[in-house]
Each structure stands twice: as structure tokens, then as C-alpha cells.
Write a structure and sequence with these properties.
It is a single chain. It is globular and about 60 Å long. The protein is an alpha+beta fold. Strands 5-6-7-2-14-13-8 form a seven-stranded mixed sheet, with helices on both faces. A six-stranded mixed sheet has the order 9-16-15-12-10-11. A three-stranded antiparallel sheet has the order 1-4-3, with no helix packed on it. The protein is built from twelve helices and 16 strands. The protein has two domains: about 150 residues, Chloramphenicol acetyltransferase-like domain (Chloramphenicol Acetyltransferase, 2-Layer Sandwich); about 260 residues, 2-Layer Sandwich (Chloramphenicol Acetyltransferase). Helix 7 crosses helix 12. It catalyses: an acyl-CoA + a 1,2-diacyl-sn-glycerol = a triacyl-sn-glycerol + CoA; a long chain fatty alcohol + a fatty acyl-CoA = a long-chain alcohol wax ester + CoA. In the N-terminal section; belongs to the long-chain O-acyltransferase family.
Length: about 450
């Protein structure tokens, strides 16, 4: 067997093929009405997906266990799986059935390696399709951008959905002294947070709570629930704190929501100010937000296809009966602002790349696994399309993303779409048997923040 014409996996891609860090992204698209097999096949056949080399290549290994992509002739029918019957036997709503199906996929359903590493599952009864893609093929930004090439605008059926990249906040002009102070802050925060990062890999662990997982928990059965937010509500809350962002609001919601949930589960048993550490996935591309596929598929560009994200350790804190819900947002913003000044996300990516390249995938995977074992949750936020779109002429009602289970007891992925933001909350059900209550705590946290913001505005009038 010759490997001369095969393309080696990137170091980041190799990470996700290791047993301890094996990851599959599961993206559910809700539909206005059921879709037929032939319609999905036609859409895929005419899309950029099958023109991308990653989606038409097998993952193969040589005698030294080095992974390669091997181009093959694609058989689309191998990748589309039709479910004409309900995917679970007893269910109350389509949402609960789909979430149960996705929860099962997150633990016990790897992708077959005798074909390219992606599948599309059609859940006809539940008016949904599930796109399953191995993380070695690319990160969330790459895959979401590619998925949009399967779709068309709702109001302009001949056009693909418009991709509007986020505009990075620009730094105001400042004098030499302020620039020097900023540089010193960057150096200081980078040093402090990288020390924290190293300690988290080696000896520091979150204290034991009912939401803390650990080694081996990735193999435990899962449950999945959906927290639903209004983007307008998040924007209202965002304006209550100067220069706050949607991500600041999200972490404020997570902090308040977790405090509420922990209070309900074990009233009075936790120490005030208890740290609960999260792992946040950070896009490292020069242009934030979704990307144009033509740019992503170009080689030798900063936007290029693949896994281009770092991680940050973002702590939230347990507080009991805090009378002002906006304090959670203020604390989240202050912490995230310090993190943004550091190079933690960039250096985490570069360190992982270096270890993968020179020490091997086993060691890089071990380090990533240790970080996840020693923290309590993972969270990501992808800004999806702002306009409604269709697939095969059928309006898409929601986009929801989750992934393979991790050693943490909680994994959260939020995607916004057409004025809504749905956050999938995947939990180890032996530790968190009621993720619906956790989702409700997050939803109520945002509503309390919104109400507090409105009250402040009314008092100022």
C-alpha cells in the first residue's frame, strides 16, 4: 500500500482521532415539514461538500500509526441514513425524541472508517436532519460555513444564505503611555493565565460538586436538553453594562444559572464564591464569525479550512441569593476582558501544535484530556446566520449542535439563528438527572437579567 499520494492529517486533526479526545460534531436542523431521501441526495450532490477533499477521503494509517487522507470515489448513498419510524419508542415531543437520539449518538455511535467521516441522518417523523461530521475534518466555524452551502435563502431561493462576518471591536487610538500600559497588561495576564493553565493540567482540580465529572465520565450515559434564548433579550441585557458582548451575557447567564441549579439541588451545602471552571473554545481566525467557503478552501491563508481554535479557562462562581442578577454579568465581563488581553487562547493552540508535532498525538491528547478532567464544563458559541434559510425548499426552524461526550458532566454548545439562540446542554445523567431543570435555570437567569435592566432604565427616565 502506497502513501505517497495521500495527504497527512494536520496536528490538530490528529488530536481528534485519539481515543481520549475522539470527537464527532452532531448538528440538528429542524424542518418545517419532513424531507425526502431523494431531496437530501440531490442537495448534497450539487453542493460544495462533495467537492471538498476532506469529505471525499478515507482516514488511513501507515505501519507507524501515522494518519493520512486518501482520496476515493464518493458513494453518496453510503452517507445518507433514512429513519422512517420514530427514533425512540416513548416520547412526548419531537424535541425530546431528537434530544434523546442525539444523546445516544454522543456516547455509543462512532463513524465508520471504511468511508469518509460524515453522515446525514434523516429523522422523517420528527421533521429533522442530523449532520454528523468528525472533528478531524474541521472545527465548528469551518463545518457551519460548509453546511450553509447546502441551503438557500428563504426569500431568495436562488441564493445561498448571506454570511456576515462579525466585526471585531477596534481599539481606540491611544498615546505611547497607554500602549505601554496595555503591553504590560498583556504580558502580565498571559504569564498569570498560562501558569494557571499549567497548574490545571498537573495538580489543580475543581472541587467536587454534583456537576463535576472526571476521568471515565465520558463513557457514562447522557441526557440532552435545550435552553432557548432570544437574541433581542441578550442585546437588551448587554446594554446594561458598557462595552459588554453577547459572550459576556452568556457567561453571566451560565454563572447565575449554575448558582440557581446548585441551590435547588443542595441548598446551603456549597461555599459562597466556589469556583466552577469552564473550558471555552475560541476561534483564532483573523475574521471572527462564519466564513466564506471559497476563502476557507484556499490554501495558505489565515482563514483556511481546519481546526483553528484555542481554549481559555473561564471560571464562574457560585453565589447564593445575590439580589442583583446583573452582578453576574459584571463579574463575567471583568474576567473575560482580562482573558482577552492575554494570549492564553493563542498559546494553548501553539503549545498543542508543538507537542503534537514533536512529541506525538498521544501526549497532546493526554494534556487535553487532563484539562477537561480537571474542569467542570465546556462551552462554545457560534454566531449562525441572521436570516432564515431553506434546505431542498423546506424552511429550517432551528440549528442545534452538540458533540461527543467528554469527561466533564456538562457540555454546552450555543448557536444563534434568525433572532434565536439555542444552547444544547449535554450531561452525564447519573450526575445530572434533570438537564431540563438546568436549562430552565439558564433561561430564567436571562429573563431576570432582562427584568433588572428594564427596571434600571425605567428608574432613569
Amino acid at each position: 500500500m502506497s502513501f505517497n499520494d495521500d495527504e497527512p492529517l494536520t496536528p490538530a486533526g490528529r488530536l481528534f482521532t485519539q481515543p481520549a479526545t475522539h470527537q464527532i460534531i452532531n448538528c440538528a436542523l429542524g424542518l418545517d415539514h419532513p424531507i425526502e431521501y431523494d431531496a437530501v441526495r440531490t442537495v448534497v450532490s450539487n453542493s460544495l461538500m462533495i467537492k471538498h477533499p476532506r469529505f471525499t477521503s478515507l482516514l488511513v494509517k501507515d505501519n507507524n500509526d501515522h494518519e493520512y487522507w486518501r482520496k476515493i470515489d464518493l458513494d453518496i448513498d453510503q452517507h445518507i441514513i433514512m429513519h422512517n419510524d420514530p427514533v425512540v419508542q416513548d416520547y412526548d415531543t419531537d424535541e425530546s425524541a431528537i434530544n434523546e437520539y442525539l444523546a445516544d449518538l454522543s456516547v455509543s455511535s462512532p463513524l465508520c472508517t471504511d468511508k469518509p467521516l460524515w453522515e446525514i441522518h434523516i429523522l422523517s417523523v420528527h421533521k429533522c436532519i442530523v449532520v454528523r461530521i468528525h472533528h478531524a475534518l474541521g472545527d465548528g466555524i469551518s463545518l457551519m460555513s460548509l453546511m450553509l452551502t447546502l441551503c438557500k435563502k428563504l426569500d431568495k431561493p436562488d441564493e445561498v444564505p448571506t454570511i456576515e462576518p462579525l466585526v471585531s471591536s477596534s481599539t481606540a487610538r491611544c498615546g505611547i503611555l497607554l500602549k505601554a500600559v496595555r503591553l504590560l497588561k498583556i504580558i502580565w495576564y498571559t504569564l498569570v493565565y498560562m501558569i494557571h493553565f499549567i497548574l490545571r493540567i498537573t495538580v489543580v482540580d475543581d472541587g467536587q460538586t454534583m456537576v463535576k465529572g472526571g476521568q471515565g465520565v465520558e463513557l457514562w450515559p447522557r441526557k440532552l436538553a435545550t435552553a432557548k434564548f432570544g437574541i433581542d433579550d441578550m442585546k437588551i441585557v448587554k446594554k446594561s453594562v458598557k462595552n459588554a458582548t453577547i459572550n459576556d451575557v452568556l457567561f453571566g447567564v451560565i454563572s447565575l444559572g449554575l448558582s440557581k441549579y446548585l441551590d435547588n439541588r443542595s441548598p446551603g451545602s456549597l461555599k459562597e464564591g466556589l469556583q466552577i471552571t469552564g473550558v471555552a473554545l475560541v476561534n483564532l481566525r483573523p475574521s471572527p464569525g462564519l466564513q466564506d467557503m471559497k476563502e476557507l478552501m484556499k490554501k495558505n491563508t489565515g482563514l483556511g479550512w481546519g481546526n483553528k481554535f484555542g481554549i481559555m479557562l473561564l471560571p464562574v462562581y457560585y453565589h447564593k441569593n445575590d439580589s442583583d442578577p446583573l452582578q453576574y454579568l459584571k463579574r463575567a465581563k471583568a474576567m473575560i476582558d482580562r482573558k482577552k488581553l492575554s494570549l492564553e487562547a493563542f498559546l494553548s493552540y501553539q503549545t498543542g501544535y508543538f507537542i503534537m508535532k514533536f512529541l506525538g498525538a498521544k501526549y497532546a491528547s493526554l494534556i487535553n484530556y487532563r484539562v477537561v478532567c480537571n474542569t467542570s464544563f465546556t462551552v462554545s458559541n457560534i454566531v449562525g446566520p441572521r436570516e432564515e434559510f431553506t434546505i431542498a425548499g423546506i424552511p429550517v426552524t432551528y440549528i442545534r449542535v452538540t458533540s461527543t461526550s467528554l469527561p466533564q458532566a456538562i457540555t454546552m454548545h450555543m448557536v444563534s439563528y434568525a433572532g434565536k439562540a439555542d444552547m444544547q446542554i449535554l450531561v452525564a445523567k447519573d450526575l445530572i438527572p434533570d438537564p431540563e431543570n438546568l436549562a430552565k435555570c439558564f433561561e430564567n437567569a436571562l429573563l431576570e437579567m432582562k427584568e433588572a435592566t428594564v427596571q434600571i432604565r425605567e428608574k432613569s427616565l
